[in-house]
Design brief:
The complex is a heterotrimer of chains A (about 290), B (about 280) and C (about 700). Chain B is mainly beta. Helices cover about 15% and strands about 35% of the residues of chain B. The chains are: A alpha+beta (about 290), B mainly beta (about 280), C mainly beta (about 700).
Chain lengths: ~290, ~280, ~700
């Protein structure tokens, strides 16, 4: 009889222990670390060589590439937000980070997929502060121009002719539903693993300010039409000068400058303002839905 | 089969088939198929002068447009307001292991159409100075619709097709600025209106409760209206490039009319013809 | 698990009742001979609707392959949308199990579901089984038994193999549409029916264009008695080649624009092969029994398919080639011991199963018409492992009550090496090809690993109301594993989890047996694999509620009637952008009815030989098949029949499929496709169908040598 009770007891404890231990363990997924960084690639830091302009072989070197990240959000499948940016941060993408990349924030999140990652460039607000390697003067410049993105640089033709440009783009853009490569696989947002570390890079594509079509898959970077817009030939290309160049006046051999079905892109200035809203990417060549902010 | 089991099955089937249908005959799955009457209207009174962005007053005396199939989608128009793109699975294909409508990510100018919500397939030719016409009924499925695709039919069809003279859009009118009066013809072929993907279409037009609005829930049979805004075609046309005495101006014909083809005025016209703001779609019950 | 049957127990009844324990013989008066009965204890049923269909039911109506046999399972409806050799699409109790993702299949002790098959998770092809060698089909609806593992979302179906015709059997079949078949089998009359071998070779021209198919297979099983233990060896091989007509637009058929059996002329079809080896070592002692069954399966599947015509690629078409090859090694082991805790009928069982799959798979886009390879979409190697352990306790606190409770834990591990460059499989692309060239994706070859576990409690309460009538209540939690390629590195494996419960009555007597049950199954949220993006797309939570009636009547040895009716209402219980809470799930039929009736009279004697007849008829009905957008698909009602005369060594039979020559649609879907490139594309979802086979007659001459 004692043996029988002992048997029953052992069996009961075995089942109960197996069940409860695993039931508890199965629901726990742990946490992992996510660091949100930003990088303008070597194209912004070192420049765009003439091989980047296969049609007209200009080259471009940025001296300043300022932008403001107004917000960043990491949310799960139910759109429950797990991480956000505390306040707007300004970065100069031409500055090379030594050691750690330019960082927006580091967060501890539950180990699970976080498929809804979004961020917004602009507008610049009074509470914006310099991010890594940026200065108070960078912030002040964006604030005075009320710009989301401000670029300055020098372009050089194959013959050695140089043009400089200084452009401030005011339009904020919201990038949502970002997806990119993680460990060799397309992933929506980011997958956080138990005890793991993930780098979510907001990548800025500096070549995107020079593509010669908004829609075509065959678009390539060009600069000649922009250089020709220097109406007073003072070597500085301004947005106001670009606003004086109707797209239909650009001969096709200098670029198609197609605008898809957009109804309000008529001049090179309109065109550049539209291109400025395509520079935001995700984890390298990953991309997001870009939308107007109203 | 024994008598009792045969009778029982018959009764069971009859009761359950009756019980399972809803009162409107729907199977109870999400959405429904709908019929879409389709009308074309012209917003501009082209016979009345309208001043474009270049300061020219433009009057159209004749105009024809070849209209091909029209399609309506869930995707947002190009460069839309801050609303999410509705991602719609094609349910059958998911179950067949072959889903095609995946996630959509757009740049400004890059239109992702999403799932097709409706279509009107009958092509025709439109008189731009007419009162508008009714096209063949279209078909669709219920749900939120945000954008549309306008296509040209090439070669054109319909009673007015010969008037297009082989083109997909043909207009004749007069542009006036100060003392300069320019009778003109502006036209384009299918090959000249292709978009960046080499398709004879304007993709990413707005679709909403009214022309120019975005987003409407097509929840029942209704009417889709394509509102043409031909003034958009001429808005950026600088007719000074074809003014008498301007270098490069084509010769006028025996009636004193200049065909602007090949000039920068024509380039402005063609860019206008390809703008989505000239083709506004709306739905009403 | 297969092979869990008591040879010495006639299994005509669906009610296995309490454990049929070995009864050690005792010494009695010298005039009585000692008898010792050995066999494996039958597991008590885990639910009221758990049932078996033996050969009396299986052979009542004609069946072409082992896949067809699924129709005798109460509540199952099968469709074929891609050629004779492709696995059926299976609907069961409110689930569209696709090709097997929600139904766990075992044949002869080997698993049939293919983990992470590139065409569909849990792909289960039963065409390798010859219908003549299936001795029993056991159905465990829901997931109430701890033995049920991955894919047992709607339930588990097991085939036991056996052939009881003594001596050598040879059959030749010829019939409609060039159907030809040769069947050969042998069985030692002094051995159990589980010892046999069989072969078949079959081909058909098909009832319309692009429907030709052929298959060949062989199977051998032998049971060795090793004293108190048994050893069962099973080996089989199978290969099939088949064309597929694809789907066609319903409006094209109904308008007469194309003939009923016409196709769009796109080459589609496939190849399938399977080889398996099972060894089952089992023993039974006075108070315990055990089994250990290692198995090995090698599978290959090639499919060429095009469901959308020229929708995605208007120039080259949307044809894809899928290849999936896998090697599966695993084992199941269980040990059950009788205990005397609350009664002498109590028992405790422990089980372990391990399954390891090595999979290589690829997907190519193929030019429609010129068959040129255009693009590699998938090129991956996967290793998947599922190790499980379970405990199952059955006690009887009072004589009329049995309580069974258990728990199963599965641990799953994945290793995926994806050789396709990341991002190539995306449906959406950045329009800038130049930008892609500047930033090429990872070249591929990265490996990702992931692990996860699932804990599933199971319980059954069985009350004996009166003799032969039980009331039962069952509860269980099951799961389905995800496609391995959908997993991120280090990701905790997401499962589709299901909760099932059922209440019902189970009855049996000498003449009639059956059950009447009500069930409810809930999924917290399903995952549909998006092949284009390799991501799992979430579908809202859903539930299935319904009832099932099934019975088998054998009032006299020469008459049998077995029928069932299953009604299920499958609805979403949450909403997303595509589905609303309360709306029905598309494609899942609501009412499935089936009736198999057989008459096997002995007509007399002729030339000193017994003259027997066999007449059988099967009625299959499927009603209320919801399509998307509030539409209904077409109902189906089919009659199959057979008639055979046998004069001992010779038999002549006639099988008729679709005897009423019903014009029916096998599969129906609603989606967008474009089969007229160059014409205006039809982008709005429309109905696409595969047309069901017309009346088909097959004549079979059989010879028996004993």
């Amino acid at each position: 009889m004692t043996k029988l009770y002992f048997e029953k007891g052992v069996a009961f404890l075995l089942v109960l222990g197996m069940a409860s231990t695993l039931a508890a363990g199965c629901d726990s997924s742990g946490t992992g670390s996510v660091t949100v960084t930003t990088w303008g690639e070597l194209l912004i830091e070192d420049g765009l060589g003439s091989d980047i302009f296969p049609a007209d072989h200009w080259s471009v070197k940025y001296s300043k590439f300022l932008l403001v990240y107004h917000s960043v959000s990491i949310a799960d499948e139910s759109h429950h937000v797990g991480a956000t940016l505390d306040h707007p941060l300004v970065f100069d993408m031409t500055k090379k980070a030594v050691g750690n990349p330019k960082t927006l924030g580091t967060y501890q999140l539950e180990a699970k997929p976080w498929p809804n990652v979004s961020y917004q460039m602009g507008p610049i607000t009074a509470d914006a502060t310099p991010g890594d390697l940026a200065t108070a003067e960078d912030v002040a410049l964006l604030q005075s121009d009320q710009a989301t993105v401000h670029v300055e640089g020098t372009a050089t033709s194959p013959a050695g002719l140089q043009k400089t440009f200084t452009w401030s783009f005011p339009t904020p853009t919201y990038f949502e539903g970002c997806h990119g490569e993680q460990d060799g696989k397309e992933v929506d947002g980011v997958i956080v693993t138990n005890g793991g570390t993930q780098n979510v890079e907001l990548t800025v594509h500096g070549d995107h300010l020079f593509y010669d079509d908004l829609q075509s898959e065959e678009a390539v970077p060009r600069f000649q039409a922009l250089a020709d817009a220097d109406a007073n030939n003072d070597g500085l290309i301004t947005l106001e000068e670009l606003d004086q160049v109707p797209l239909y006046t650009i001969p096709v051999e200098k670029g198609t400058y197609g605008t898809g079905a957009l109804g309000n892109v008529n001049t090179l200035g309109d065109y550049e303002r539209t291109l400025s809203r395509t520079i935001g990417h995700y984890r390298g060549e990953g991309s997001c839905n870009s939308k107007s902010v109203q | 089969m024994s008598n009792w089991s045969r009778a029982g099955t018959t009764v069971l089937v009859g009761v359950l088939v009756t019980a399972c249908s809803s009162s409107d005959g729907s199977s109870g799955t999400t959405g429904k198929t709908i019929t879409l009457k389709t009308n074309v209207s012209i917003q501009d009174v082209l016979s009345q002068p309208k001043i474009n962005a270049k300061g020219w007053s433009v009057v159209i005396s004749q105009g024809y447009l070849s209209v091909g199939p029209l399609y309506y989608f869930t995707g947002d128009p190009v460069l839309s307001r801050l609303t999410p793109v509705r991602r719609t699975r094609q349910s059958a294909l998911a179950w067949l292991g072959d889903v095609l409508v995946g996630s959509a990510h757009a740049h400004p100018g890059h239109y992702i159409e999403g799932a097709a919500m409706g279509q009107t397939l009958g092509p025709t030719t439109i008189d731009l100075l007419g009162a508008g016409i009714a096209l063949a009924d279209g078909t669709g499925v219920s749900g939120l619709t945000n954008s549309a695709k306008f296509t040209w039919q090439d070669p054109a069809t319909g009673n007015l097709a010969p008037l297009l003279q082989g083109h997909v859009v043909w207009t004749q009118g007069t542009a006036t600025k100060g003392d300069i009066v320019i009778p003109f013809i502006a036209k384009a072929d299918a090959a000249e209106v292709v978009d960046g993907d080499q398709k004879v279409e304007v993709a990413g037009c707005s679709f909403g409760v009214a022309p120019g609005q975005v987003g409407v829930d097509m929840d029942s049979d209704g009417t889709v209206t394509l509102t043409l805004v031909p003034s958009v075609w001429f808005d950026q046309v600088d007719f000074s490039y074809v003014a008498p005495g301007t270098a490069g101006t084509p010769a006028v014909d025996s009636n004193g009319v200049v065909d602007i083809a090949g000039t920068l005025a024509w380039e402005g016209f063609v860019r206008g013809v390809k703008k989505g703001t000239a083709y506004l779609f709306s739905y009403a019950k | 698990m297969g092979g869990n049957s008591a040879e010495s127990v006639p299994d005509a009844s669906a009610d296995s009742g309490p454990d049929t324990a070995s009864q050690p013989a005792g010494n009695v008066e010298s005039a009585v001979v000692d008898v010792q009965i050995t066999g494996i204890r039958l597991s008590p049923p885990s639910s009221a609707s758990e049932t078996t269909r033996d050969q009396t039911v299986i052979q009542a109506a004609p069946h072409r392959t082992g896949g067809d046999l699924l129709q005798v399972v109460p509540g199952v409806f099968i469709t074929q949308h891609s050629g004779q050799g492709k696995a059926y699409q299976v609907f069961y109790r409110g689930f569209d199990a696709v090709h097997g993702q929600d139904l766990e299949f075992w044949v002869g002790g080997a698993p049939v579901n293919e983990v992470s098959n590139i065409h569909g998770q849990g792909y289960a092809d039963l065409h390798f089984v010859m219908p003549e060698v299936v001795s029993r089909v056991t159905v465990l609806p829901g997931n109430y038994s701890p033995e049920q593992g991955d894919f047992a979302v709607a339930g588990t179906i097991r085939y036991d193999l056996g052939y009881s015709e003594p001596g050598i059997t040879g059959k030749g079949t010829y019939g409609s549409f060039g159907e030809r078949r040769v069947f050969l089998a042998y069985h030692d009359p002094d051995a159990s029916a589980k010892s046999f071998a069989a072969f078949e070779s079959q081909s058909t021209d098909g009832f319309g264009p692009s429907r030709a198919a052929s298959r060949t297979s062989g199977v051998a099983q032998q049971v060795f008695n090793l004293g108190e233990d048994k050893l069962r060896l099973l080996a089989s091989g199978y290969a099939a080649n088949f064309d597929s007509p694809g789907v066609v637009r319903l409006a094209d058929i109904e308008s007469g624009a194309m003939g009923r059996f016409d196709t769009y002329g796109v080459n589609q079809g496939g190849f399938s092969s399977r080889y398996q080896l099972v060894t089952e070592y089992s023993g039974s002692r006075a108070s315990s029994d055990w089994t250990l069954a290692p198995y090995a399966v090698q599978r290959a599947l090639k499919l060429k398919q095009n469901y959308t015509g020229y929708l995605v690629d208007p120039i080259n078409g949307d044809t894809t080639q899928l290849i999936n090859e896998s090697t599966t090694l695993g084992f199941t082991g269980r040990f059950r011991r009788a205990v005397h805790w609350l009664s002498s009928q109590d028992s405790i069982e422990a089980g372990v199963s391990v399954r390891n799959d090595w999979i290589s798979q690829s997907q190519l886009n193929i030019g429609t018409g010129n068959e040129r390879v255009l693009e590699t979409i998938v090129d991956a190697k996967i290793r998947a492992m599922d190790a499980a352990g379970w405990l199952d306790v059955a006690v009887s606190p009072i004589s009329r009550l049995k309580i069974r409770a258990g728990v199963r834990v599965d641990g799953l591990a994945y290793h995926v090496q994806d050789n396709t460059p990341a991002g190539e499989s995306r449906a959406d692309t950045d329009p800038n090809a130049f930008s892609h060239k500047l930033r090429p994706p990872s070249p591929g070859g990265q490996a990702r690993t992931a692990m996860g576990s699932h804990y599933g409690p199971r319980a059954t309460i069985d009350g004996l109301l009166v003799s032969g009538l039980h009331a039962m209540f069952s509860y269980g939690e099951g799961f389905r594993s995800p496609q391995a390629r959908s997993l991120g590195d280090g990701e905790k494996t997401p499962f589709t989890t299901v909760r099932s419960m059922e209440a019902g009555l189970r009855f049996s007597s000498d003449v009639v047996s059956g059950s009447l049950s009500a069930f409810r199954t809930t999924l917290n949220g399903d995952l549909v694999f998006d092949a284009a993006t390799t991501r799992n797309e979430a579908v809202p939570a859903s539930q299935r509620m319904g009832g099932a009636l099934e019975f088998t009547v054998e009032p006299v040895p020469w008459f049998m009637s077995s029928g069932s009716a299953t009604y299920t209402r499958a609805t979403f219980t949450a909403s997303d952008s595509d589905f609303n809470s309360g709306d029905k799930l598309p494609y899942v039929p609501e009412l499935i009815v089936r009736e198999d009736t057989a008459f096997t009279p002995t007509l007399g004697h002729l030339w000193s030989r017994v003259l027997r007849a066999r007449f059988g008829v099967a009625l299959t009905g499927m009603f209320n098949r919801p399509q998307p957008y509030g539409q209904f698909g077409h109902n189906v009602f089919l009659v199959d029949a057979l008639a055979q005369l046998r004069l001992q060594e010779v038999a002549l039979g006639l099988d008729v499929f679709n005897a009423l020559d019903a014009h029916w649609y096998d599969s129906e879907f609603t989606y967008s496709a474009n089969w007229n490139p160059g014409a205006a594309a039809r982008l709005v979802p429309e109905r696409y169908v595969t047309v069901g086979a017309p009346r088909t007659l097959l004549m079979t001459l059989s010879l028996y040598v004993n």
